[in-house]
Design a protein that fits this description.
Layout: E1 16-22, E2 26-35, E3 38-48, H1 58-72, E4 78-83, E5 88-96, H2 100-109, H3 111-115, E6 122-132, E7 147-156, H4 157-169, E8 173-179, H5 183-191, H6 193-198, E9 200-206, E10 211-217, E11 220-227, H7 231-242, H8 246-255, H9 261-286, E12 292-296, H10 303-313, E13 316-319, E14 327-328, H11 332-335, H12 338-341, H13 346-354
Parallel strand pairs: 1-4, 3-14, 4-8, 9-12, 12-13
Antiparallel strand pairs: 1-2, 2-3, 5-7, 6-7, 9-10, 10-11
Helix pairs in contact: 1-4, 5-13, 7-8, 7-9, 9-10
Bound molecules: adenosine-5'-triphosphate (ATP) and magnesium ion (MG).
Magnesium ion is lined by residues 23, 207, 297, 347.
Amino acid sequence: MAMPFSNAGGRKKRDHMIAIDLGQRVTKAVQVQRTGQAFTLSGMALMDTPIFDKALSVQALAEHLTAVGKALGAKTRNLTLTVGINDSLVRHVDMPQLPATDLRLILKNNSRAYLQQDLGTHVFDCVSGSGPASATQAEPAKAPASKHRTLVAGAKRQLIDDLVAGAKQAGFLADHIVPGILGPLNAFELTRPEVFAGEVVGLVDIGFKSSSICILQQGELVLNRVVNMGGDRLTAGLADYLNINYAEAEGIKLGMPHEVQSALESLVTPLGRELRALIDFFEHQQDRSVSQVFLSGGTAQSDLVVQSLRHELMLECTAWNPTAFLELALPESQTADLPRAAGQLGVAVGAALAAL
Ligand SMILES: Nc1ncnc2c1ncn2[C@@H]1O[C@H](COP(=O)(O)OP(=O)(O)OP(=O)(O)O)[C@@H](O)[C@H]1O
Ligand SMILES: [Mg+2]
């Protein structure tokens, strides 16, 4: 199965879609309905992601998706799944101007030439950029005019097949599978349209073991990178510092972060430094400044973390709400959870939008 992007591709659009973001720590699910230009959130669920063995078992995935569908109050079988940042690659590549089906085949047969890796067992999807290759190039590659800057995503075919099989066993039709890293972009476009269209901003999603940064320049993705740090590192670091176990450290991190403020700040510093280095790289290449950074993911719900990152990045940092543009029709039992959960839903909401 191919991997559609944003709102591109000729796949059938639905008016009702469930999207499930299989996060490393927490699975996030949303049910979104489209009516004309408006989008309504009619279901939401957060559930711990089971720890899969090394290989994802289709059976375990099916059981998990069944439980998530139940908690969500699923009203449709149409499902979009996301592939995590460590299981997918998303990269700009200079490619000939050809239809996406041809580009997919070229990538499959020549992955080493275009992606510097043998990825013969991957499936790919592509979106051609609007301008010539060098127009928004973050890396200093000079491409012939006949080549176009193309956004390429790939994932192992086996993983995609397993996701589709697990979803089917759970009663879903997983006809859209998207790279999770692109989710927040779609949600941001509708949440903050003026900023999306007019500024150069960083979208940072702080995950469990890793985090991602996407730099958007007037609505175009110009740089995306993964940083191998997330909420897990903060908890593990606190456990070491306080000489307590992981569960106790997690409790303190969530319940009384100000008691351990200086330790938390110093644990956030390496993440801030890595992000600052990536922003510096972009700014020097493009001679453009990033105006502000928008944070999502569980860890971004901590004011202390947001403040520490603001200090480290020397940029305005804001935790944004990727559900703010949605009309709400949630069952009463889910409404109370939304304010706490909203900041974690960017990947799922954006993935649903890609299929609507
Ligand atoms: N209020 C909070 N303050 C600090 N950390 C928090 C808070 N709420 C959640 N977290 C942390 O967020 C992390 C989980 O975040 P999230 O759900 O975004 O990860 P994930 O999506 O499962 O991971 P990934 O994106 O890497 O697959 C956990 O480490 C948890 O401790
Ligand atoms: Mg996540």
